[in-house]
Amino acid sequence: MVIDQELERILPAVSKPARYTGGEWNSVVKDWDASDVRWVLAFPDVYEIGMSNLGLAILYEILNGADGVLAERVFAPWVDMDEAMRAAGLPLFSLESRRPLAEFDVIGFSLPYEQLHTNLLNMLDLAGLPLLAAERDEGQPLVIAGGGAVFNPEPMADFVDAFVLGEGEEVVLEVTAALRQSKQCAEGRAEQLLRLSSIPGLYIPRFYDVDYHDDGTIAEVRTTVPEAPMPVRKRIVATLPPPITRPVVPYIDTVHNRGAIEIQRGCGRGCRFCHAGMVYRPVRERPAEEVLAAVDALVANTGYEEVALLSLSSSDYRGIEALVGELVARQGDGEGAPGTGHLSISLPSLRIESVSVDLMDKLQATGRRSSFTFAPEAATERLRGVINKPIADEDLLAVVEEVYRRGWKTVKLYFMIGHPTQTLDDVAAIVDLAMEVRAVGRRVLGRKAQVNVSVSTLVPKPHTPFQWVPLADEEEVRAQQDYLKEHLQGPGLKLNWNNYRETLLEAVLSRGDRRLGAVIHRAWQLGARFDGWSDQFRVEAWRQAFRELEVEIGFYARRQRSVDEVLPWDHVDVGVSKRYLVRDYEASLRGETRLDCREQCYACGILSAFREARESVADDAWACP
Ligand code: SF4
Fold first, then answer.
1. What are phi and psi of 28, to 5 degrees?
2. Which parts of 30-72 fold into alpha helices (H)?
3. Which tens digit of pLDDT belongs to each residue from 535-592?
4. Distance 418 CA to ligand 1 centre (A)
5. CA 492, 494, 495 angle in degrees (round to 5)?
6. pLDDT digits (tens, 9 = 90+) for 593-618
7. Is residue 89 classed as helix, strand or coil in its secondary structure?
8. What one-character DSSP code corresponds to residue 164?
9. Is the shortest distance between the CB of 313 and ligand 1 below 6 Å?
10. Quick one: which of 138, 224, 242, 567 has the most CB atoms within 10 Å?
11. Are strands 259-262 and 232-233 parallel, antiparallel or unpaired?
12. Nearest-angstrom CA–CA distance, 246 and 26
């Protein structure tokens, strides 16, 4: 095959060639001719990041487990490979069968964050496909996108044929069935998309038009065909499907070199800045027996020596101590599957108030790692009330002390600046709190104790109670960062912060409307890609694109919006109602906090959406018209 020959020639000259070879353990190569619907699952970042994405692994296993369907993978080639492929005239190809992307029926992009938008365009271009959805026809793959960033799909509306809003496990099979039928009926792209628009959770931007007021705000989003739903409600899987136990095992180091079992989906805490906490409601726990069996199977199928128990907030899983305890005990008495004898367990996201001493003891027994991470997000109790992450300093310090006592040397603390109502005192308190944590560490461990502080800037995200507030001003943020740099230094302390320009781009792209499509396109033409990589981020390309198209950055990022304004994402229904978000935003300004919604229901709206999801039966009567 030409691709094989060219690859042989160019791979020795690029960095990390194993990113492009495929053939990994557990990868699936199905018979091309025996499959009538062929997906390529595309992750628009490098292999090492994409291979650590659980969503992609889930869809890969589900699609390849279905008859007559195949799913292959493709990741964004790093800049050296991009250059080499263009020079060689090599089209973007899948890892499994090394076929050009243009030969597939569907390209299913994962878009977990907005900094991947230009990479999506770049991958389409490398595949030799038109970037604009309107310029692709039924002879070319359908471009679908899903993931956290598409809960505001509008900035990418020009490029993507259909967005999957919400959880994809059921939708991908429904889309497959619809496409199979569409092929049998020899439908054109327009009929195909109409057929897809009847699948709940699918948003097809060409069936919607947007009218604007003279001041640039949105007057109305209208449907242009009667079949298009308004609003478009996200998909929720009522019961979590069985966990992935046979993931592809990379040959090279990835971001997470470990297996992962999702123990819980959704989070009920309701931190007001947290996009995932709002859009992935409600909370659904996986039964402990299912987790235990899955860990055994995962280890047997992969040989991993570390398994992460994933959730947005793993320590909130009811029975987490018992679950970790059981995993530890099974290693001791040999009850686990072969290979689980030296298993190390990690819980990547822990809530300070739900980490018990008992849990720490059990985690310690499964193999101590070098650091323990907490995210208070604000350093004063007042501001933690505003963001609804209430925890007393005293409790935080008590937990930290127990952590150091168990021999963890480094405590990582995550904070944000730019929260609504934040003052300089709140910023100064980050220094004080970090110093107190270091003092606790020193009392316990002496000079070995380390505190790493990461300070990012709040991006007020769509579908959260802070969706109306502006991104903090650049000068203010820089002054606050300078203050932290000056005061947060010394032995045992390390500070990381974010580049404001990168934060600004994230804010614009996550809060934008369809008029940003032209800007994204132009920025890509001017060389923007890998926008999430500081060493690749080209602020000048973006500046020029905004300037040429006369689009104002401040309009999207720096404006306090009225709660009555029609927001670009209002026609996407994530289940949590706008009425609730307004109420919660107002409560935040009064400093009122909410309990975990599993303890008290605040009528956010998700329960009725969930009930409907349970009752809705996917329509499998895909007859030709
Ligand atoms: S605990 Fe808060 S920050 Fe963490 S996932 Fe839940 S809502 Fe988000």
1. -115, 125
2. 47-50, 54-64
3. 999 999 999 999 999 999 999 999 999 999 999 999 999 999 999 999 999 999 999 9
4. 18
5. 155
6. 999 999 999 999 999 888 887 776 44
7. coil
8. E
9. yes
10. 567
11. unpaired
12. 6
